[in-house]
Amino acid sequence: MNPDASTIAAGAPIEVDLTPIAEGQDIKVFWRGKPIYISHRTKKQIDEARKVPVASLPDPQSDEARVKAGHDQWLVVIGICTHLGCIPIAHEGNYNGFFCPCHGSQYDSSGRIRQGPAPANLPVPPYQFVSDTKIQIG
Amino acid sequence: MSGPSDFQPTNPALKWIERRLPIMGLVHSSFVAYPTPRNLNYWWTFGGILSIMLALQILTGVILAMHYTPEATMAFKSVESIVRDVNYGWLLRNMHACGASMFFLAVYIHMFRGLYYGSYKEPREVLWILGVIIYLLMMATGFMGYVLPWGQMSFWGATVITNLFSAVPYFGESIVTLLWGGYSVGNPTLNRFFSLHYLLPFVIAGVVVLHVWALHVAGQNNPAGVEAKTEKDTLPFTPYATIKDAFGLSCFMLLYAWFIFYMPNYLGDSDNYVVANPGVTPAHIVPEWYYLPFYAILRSIPNKLAGVACMFGAILVLAFLPWLDTARTRSSKYRPLAKQFFWIFVIVCLLLGWLGAKPAEGVYVIAGRILTICYFGYFLILLPLLSRIEKPRPVPNSIADDVLAKNGGRPAMVSAAMALMVAGGLLFGNVQNARAEDHQEAPPSVKWSFSGPFGKFDRGSMQRGLKVYKEVCSSCHGLSYIAFRNLADAGGPGFSTAQAAAFASEYKIKDGPNDQGDMFERAGRPADYFPSPFANEQAARAANGGAYPPDLSLITKARSYARGFPTFLFDFFTQFQEQGPNYVNALLQGYEETPPAGVTIPDGSYYNKYFPGHAVKMPKPLSDGQVTFDDGSPATLAQYSRDVTTFLMWAAEPHMEERKRLGMQVFLFLILLSGLLYFTKKKVWANAH
Fold first, then answer.
1. Is the peptide bond before B70 cis (omega within 30 degrees of 0)?
2. Which of A27, A59, A80, A86 is best to mutate for the B interface (most B CBs within 10 A)?
3. What global pTM score does this model have?
C-alpha cells in the first residue's frame, strides 16, 4: 500500500530555470504534489534573516544553513505550513516572509517560524544548482 | 436475558428450515418475544433509529457507488452527474449526505442517553466498549466519505487530518505516506479512501451485530436503572417496543426529510462546490459539524503531539467509563449531583462544538483550553469523585413500581428534547459562522421566486438570464455542467426540444479525431455541453491578467457568507438557502468607480463592495442598456443581475422544483404516518399501564 512505481516516477527530480525570476519576486512550482516557493531575495531580506539571533528562534536554524553557499539570494522552501498543512502566502506578515492564513503562523524571509502555532521552519527540499541560473529539485 | 425461544412454525416447509437453521426462532426470540423493560422512554428509540440509518446509508451508498468515479480528475464531475442526470440521483445524494449528519445526531443522543442512565455500568461494559468502537469506525467512515466528492473542503480537510498522524513519534511520516499513497493528498489517496469507505460500513454492521448480541445477553437498561426481576417488569418487544420505535423513527424521518428536501446544504460548506485545488487553501478550513468538538480540543493544545493525543484521548476516555464511574446507582435520575454535572457536561460539549468552527485566535483559544480541561475533568476527576462522595436517592424496588409511580414523565423528555434541538440548531448553524470573522459586509437579502418550500423558477427570468449569459458572461466564463438538452428539461427555462436543438446548432463544437486523426468542428447537438471560452485554465489566466474566470455552473452554491446570530437559527425554520444568489446579485451591482478613502486597489483590479478583499480582477461586466430583452423587461443593471442570477441558480440546481415538490409529498405523508403511528402506539400501550 506504499506509493506505487508510477507515483514515485512522477516524483522524479525537476529542473527550474531561475532567469525569469526578478529580484524580490518569487514563483511557486509543484514537485511531488507539494508547492515549492523559489524566492529571489533582496539584500534587505537576506540581512533581516541574518541579523536574528539564532538561539531566539522557536526552531533554531541559521539562514546560511537554509541556502546554498554562494547563492544566498535564492531561497527554496516547501510551501506547506508545518502546523496543519495549509499553503502560506508569500510576502506577507510582520517578518517580510510568509503568512499562513489558516491559524496565523508567521515565517521570516528565510522561511523560519517566528510566531504562531507551527512547530518547525518551512522545510527545504533536496535541491542543487546545476548552473548559476538553474536548479534541480529532488 | 434472551427471550424464551418457544417458537415453532406450523408450516412443514418452514419447520424443515427451522430444524436446520433456526433463524426464525432467533428473530422471534430477539425481536418478538424478547422481554423489554416496560418503563423505557423515547431516548431508547435511538438504537433502532441508528440501525435503520446504517441500512439507509449502505443502501444509498451502494447505489451512489454505481455512478461515482473515484479518480481525482473525474470525481467531482461524477458527483455532479449523479445529481443532474442519474434518475433521482439528487435524492440519493441528499439522502446520503444528510443521512451522515442524521446518523451522527442519532449516535450522539444515543451516547448521551448511555451516559445519563449509566448504561455502561456492570454488566454492560463490553456493550459500551463495542459502542465506542462503532463510534470510532463511524468517524473514520464519515471523514473518508467527505473526501470523495473532491471539493476544496474534501481535499484540504483530508490534508489537515492526514497530517495529524505525522505527530506520531518515529512512525509518523511512514503512516502519513501510507495514508496518502504518495507524497501528498492526491489520486492514490482518493482511491484508497473510496475502497475503505465502502468497506468500513460493513465492518460497522458486524460490530453492530456484536453490540446487539451483547445487549440481549444483559438485557436493556431502563430509566430507573433497576434490573428487570419478574415478568411484571417487562413487555414483549413486539408489539410494544416495535410500535414505539416506529413512531420515534417516523418523527426522526420528519427531521431527516426537512434536511433532504428543503435544507440539503445547511450543514455543509459552500467551498465544497469548488473543485479541489492543491495550490489554493480556503480561508477557513472547517470539518463537518460532528467533528467540531474534537477539532476544538485538538487546537486548544499548543503542542502538536499532545494535541493529537488529547483529540483521540477525548474519544478513548469513553471506553474507560465503566471503571471511572463506579457509583452503585445506575441512573442519574437518582443521583442529584451527577445529574447536574451531566447537563453541565452537555453544555461543555456543545460549546466545544461551537468553538471548533471559530478561528483559533484570541479569546477563543483561552475558552477552548478551559473547556478541554472541563471535558477531561468530567471523566477523569468528577465521576470517580462522585462515585465516592455522592449520596444517591433511593431507587424504586422494581421496574413495575417505577411505572406505577410515574405520572407524566413525558414533559421532562419533551423539554429536554426542545433544549437539545435549540442547542443543536446553534451548533449546526455555527458551521457557517467561520466566515463571520472576515468582517465582510453581507450582501442585501433579495426576494427570490425560488426560495421557500413552494419556490419555483421564474421562466421568463431564466430565459432573460440565459440571454445575458450568452451575450456577456460566456466570453470569459464557462458553463460546462449544463448541456443544451437541459434547456428543455422540466423545471428549466422552458425551451421545447426543437428550440433546444436549434439553440445548440448555433454553437461550434470541437469533435474528433476523425479517420484522418484530425480534430474538426461541427454544429452543436442537444447532448453537447456549453463550450468553455478557453481551452484550459492557463489560457484563461493568460487572457485575464492572471485571474481565472470561474465556471458558473455551480457559482450560486459555491459562494456564501455568514448570516450571524441569531439569524442562522431562523434560517433553519424559514428554509433560507439563498446566500449564493444574494452574493452573486450583489457582486454584479457592487462596483464603485472610486474606492472609499484609505482603500488602495492594485493596478488591474477593480473595487467591489461585496467581493472578499474588495479588489476583483473582473471589470464591471454589466451596465444599463447592454442587453435588450424581447419581452420588454427593463434593460437595467438590476434586471440583468436578478435574471442572470436566477438562471445561474437553475444551472447550479436544475432539479430544485422537483426536490421541493417531492419534499411536500414526503412531508405530508410522514406527518400523516406519524399521527397514525402515535395513535396506534397509544392503543397498543393502553393495557400496559
1. no
2. A86
3. 0.90
